[in-house]
Structures are given as C-alpha cells and as structure tokens.
Write a structure and sequence with these properties.
10 helices; 276 residues; 36% helix; 5-stranded mixed β-sheet; Bit1; 4-stranded mixed β-sheet; alpha+beta
C-alpha cells in the first residue's frame, strides 16, 4: 500500500499541490456552462458506448457486523475523491497524470460500490487513496474505463450501500460544509459520489480565484470537511437560484447539479458546498 494512503488523506506538500492542482482547471469552465443550462437539462449520451465510459470508482467499507456511521462515511468519501485528484502522481509527468486529465476533461462520473472483509482488502492494491474518518473508510480510485475495471472492483455490488441516518452534531468550525438537499433523498452510495463532486468543484474554484493558500491549508488537513443534511431554512438561504456565479463570489457557495442518470431527476441540485 502506498505511503500516505490512510488517515485524513495525508498532508499534501505545498510544492506538490502547486504542480498538480491545474489538473482541475477544466472543471471551472464546465461548471459555469453546466449550471447555465435549463434546470432539467442532462447530457446527451445517446451515442455513448457504455463500455468506454470513464469513471472514478469509489469503494465504501461497510462491514456486516459493524457498519460505519453514515455521515463519517460520506465525509471520508468527499476527502478521498479530492485526494486522488491532487495526489502527487497526478502532476505533469506523473504516472497518474494522463488518466486523471482525460477524466477531468470529460464527463465527471463516479460510481460507489460496497465491500467488506477480504473484498475490501483486495482493492487496497489498486491505484487510489484510502481515507478514514471516525472509523469509516472509503477508497477512491484512479479513473478508468468501465471495460478496464479489474475484477476486484467489478465484482463488488453497487446496491445495498445505504445506511441509517445519524446525528453527527455541529459541523466543524474551520472546514467546508457540504449540505445535502433535504428534498432529494439519496442512498449512501449516491451521496458519496455527490459529495466527491463537491470537493472537486470547491478545489477548482479556489484555485481559479487565486486562493491557493486557502487550498493548501485545506490540503494540510487532508481535505477535511463536514457533510450535513440541510434543513429547509438553510437550503433556501444558501441556494443560488439562477445566479450561481454570484453565490460563489459573495457567499463562497458552490453547487452540485446532477445529470439525473440514477436516483434523482435531471438537473437536481444535490449538494451545496459552503466554503468555510
């Protein structure tokens, strides 16, 4: 297992971060154009070969006898997704650069599967990063074509990854908060993918605004964040409506809007990511 794969994603060296964060730049333009589309818009995938879809697999460790807390699992997923993107191996010339750049420049897709016992141990040798938060563990992997997915991943189930809601308490005071839509129930697997999108978008927007010092400080915490279910008042107050650019500029709120392939309708805002 690679050094720095566990714990809170491992601190990222500032020089390494400076050399790798540009990999997220394509997200900035795509974020703006996607949010400018009508609310129910979705990508046209009619001519897409499912075997050639490129996605980031994520594996949630859910042991039968001792399942993790749902919130901790989602926080681990949010950190793990970004930790893979900003791993030093994704910098120009690094062994992961081409795969990551190709994925970020296309459609950002993730799929979450569940594993326990020996199946969890088996995936630790595949290229990726494992993050643990409060006893919950998630491993996010280098993006790959569906057709190239190794059996250690393809044999894992996507369904059955839900967990009972928990009461996590107040959000961390010095970390971004990822607010889940109270009107769009999602499984833990779907939510894990959505909060992973959220941390990527936050990092891209911070870099795009020249806030690399803040991004480096976040990286030093292992991209720690809080995931919380928003109440109606919080969601209404933070929701940018038809002006997401202003929401980011004035309130540092970023939006994750789903294409609607699974569980939610096209155009659903699934997460509001509030920078501390």
């Amino acid at each position: 297992m690679e050094p720095g794969n566990n714990g809170a994603a491992g601190a990222v060296d500032r020089d390494v971060l400076d050399s790798v964060v540009d990999v997220l730049d394509p997200l900035i333009a795509r974020y703006a154009s996607w949010l400018a589309l009508p609310g129910a818009a979705t990508a046209d995938t009619s001519d897409e070969d499912p075997e050639n879809v490129v996605l980031m697999p994520m594996v949630l460790r859910i042991e039968r006898r001792d399942p993790p807390a749902r919130t901790a699992l989602l926080e681990a997923a949010a950190s793990a997704a970004l930790a893979v993107c900003l791993d030093e191996r994704c910098k120009p010339g690094g062994e992961w650069h081409e795969a990551m750049s190709t994925w970020v420049s296309g459609r950002i897709r993730k799929v979450a599967r569940r594993a326990r016992g020996s199946h969890w141990e088996a995936v630790q040798d595949l290229p990726g990063r494992t993050v643990e938060v409060g006893g919950a563990e998630v491993r996010a992997f280098l993006p790959m074509r569906v057709a190239d997915m190794p059996k250690e991943l393809s044999r894992l189930q996507i369904s059955g990854s839900d967990l009972e809601p928990d009461e996590p308490g107040p959000a961390l005071p010095d970390a971004p908060v990822l607010w889940l839509n109270p009107d769009a129930p999602m499984s833990a697997g779907k939510s894990a993918a959505q909060v992973g999108h959220a941390t990527m978008i936050l990092a891209a927007l911070l870099h795009g605004d020249g806030m690399d010092r803040e991004l480096a400080e976040w990286a030093a915490t292992g991209f720690r964040c809080s995931v919380r279910a928003a109440d109606a008042e919080t969601w209404s107050r933070l929701h940018p409506r038809d002006d997401p650019e202003r929401a980011w500029r004035e309130s540092r709120v970023a939006v994750v809007r789903d294409a609607g392939f699974t569980e939610v309708d096209p155009g659903t805002v699934t997460v509001l990511a509030q920078w501390r």
